[in-house]
Amino acid sequence: MKTFYLLFLTCCLLCLSQPNIGVAQTMNLSWQKTFDGKGNEQFNDLIEATNGNLVAVGKSSSQSAGGDDGYLVFADFSTGANILERRFGGKKNEEFKAVVQTFDGGFVLAGSTESNTVGKKDAWLMKVDEYGTLLWEKSFGSKGSDSWECLSIQSDGSLVAAGYWDGNVRVAKLVGQEIEWETIIGKGKYDNLTGMAMAA
Question: How many helices (H) and strands (E) does the chain have?
Answer without folding.
Answer: 0, 14
